[in-house]
Amino acid sequence: MKILFLAPYPGNEAPSQRYRLEHYFSYLEEQGISYAYKPFLSLSTWRIFFRPGNYFRKVVGLLGGFARRALLMLTIPGYDYVYIHREASPAGPPIFVWVIAKLFRKRIIYDFDDAIWIPSSSQYNKIARSIKWFSKVATICKWSYKVSAGNDYLAAFASKYNKNVIIVPTVVDTELTHNKMQDHETDHPVIGWTGSFSTLKYLDIILPVLQRLQEKFEFTFVVIADKDPALPLKRYRFIPWRKETGDTDLLSMHIGVMPLYNDELSKGKCGFKAIQYMSMGIPAVVSPVGVNNLIVDDGINGFICDDLDEWELRLTQLLTNKDLRKRLGVAARKKIESNYSVSATRDKFLSLFS
Fold first, then answer.
1. Is 2-168's fold the same as 190-339's?
2. Which of 33, 106, 337, 352 has CB 3.0 to 4.6 Å from 28, enough for a Cys bridge?
3. Which one, of 223, 255, 235, lies nearest residue 321 by Cα?
4. In the 8-state DSSP scheme, what is residue 178?
5. Are the beta carbons of 119 and 128 closer than 8 angstroms?
6. Average pLDDT over every residue of 234-255
7. pTM of whole model > 0.90?
8. Are 262 and 287 in contact (CB under 8 A)?
9. pLDDT at 239 exceeding the cut of 60
10. How far is residue 352's CA from residue 354's CA, in Å, rounded to a whole number?
């Protein structure tokens, strides 16, 4: 068997790719399955793509990606499966997917972990909204052999266009990377959040709660991200996200938060922040949106908060009770090992290619 993986970004760079497909590659090798990994963007374009400016370089990088994709189409007959993560190309109609599915009649595995059919764009690439061709998600679902969706909400969308939809959650490797536990032996616990610049807006939801709590308790709020939101808090620390330390940096926190707005985009998220926290024995406090309600068992391995009063209550309990943090943290780790780890989902991923 030979599999072609098509992804937007270079290997070992983008979190969605590393946590949805790249950490399964060793299992493919164990099964004697050969594969090729072909990103759309080059490494140099990836490094500037989500930063302001550099418009000429971005256009050149996009054109180069289209040229490489066009040449790649000549190799499609040599593969048994083509696995597409999110999109084969970031702009325009799904021409390359049409070639793969209709011209060469290859079996496509289509994978996505966000509500990518809903029009949106980052503040640095607003022009992308007009060229993304969001409607192609439904079309690619129709043309695919199987669809790998990150949660129930995404699977429900895909199921309108494809009868062969499998839910494969976004998971962590509890043996190689997320393999340490927070011990909670401290009198100065830290509340933390990790994410990207595009999700920093969610911190606005709980900022008033954090400000009130810092009037009562000695704690620091930590943000691990690719941009510093410079939150107006008395005790605040920013840790620049780096792929080399992004996992172990989670141990700088004792309580992990994942606030979300209750909108369609948020319902499509795969709860990965909570999964990361919990894998390290860090209780997660989350909004009751989408898959968060399945990942976190309220009062057992974390807390689900409906309103700001509940956020303040639950964070207060965790700040003032290290035994509660320990108990929930141990249960959280067990939940991730059983349901949201590479080892727990290995067979489900491999079943996509059958």
1. yes
2. 33
3. 255
4. S
5. no
6. 94
7. yes
8. yes
9. yes
10. 6
Residues 6+ apart with CB under 8 A from 259: 202, 203, 205, 206, 286, 287, 311
Extract the tokens encoding 234. 């008395």
Show the tokens assigned to 225: 């991200």
Q: How many CA atoms lie within 13 A of 92 on its CB side?
A: 11
Q: 2-168 — its CATH code?
A: 3.40.50
| Residue-level pLDDT at 49 | 87
- C-beta atoms surrounding 347 within 10 Å: 9
Of 99, 168, 170, nearest to 140 by C-alpha is: 99
Grade residue 52 by pLDDT with cuts at 50, 70 and 90.
confident
Name which of 52-61, 250-259, 338-347 the model is least confident about.
52-61
Tokens found for residue 61: 């990088």
Structural domain boundaries in the chain: 2-168, 190-339
Q: What pLDDT score was predicted for residue 179?
A: 94
- 296 band by pLDDT with thresholds 50, 70 and 90: very high
Placement of tokens 């007959």 in the chain: 77
CATH architecture of 190-339: 3-Layer(aba) Sandwich (3.40)
pLDDT given at position 127? 55
Q: CA 170 to CA 166: how far, in whole Å? A: 13
For residues 263-275, give the mean pLDDT: 96
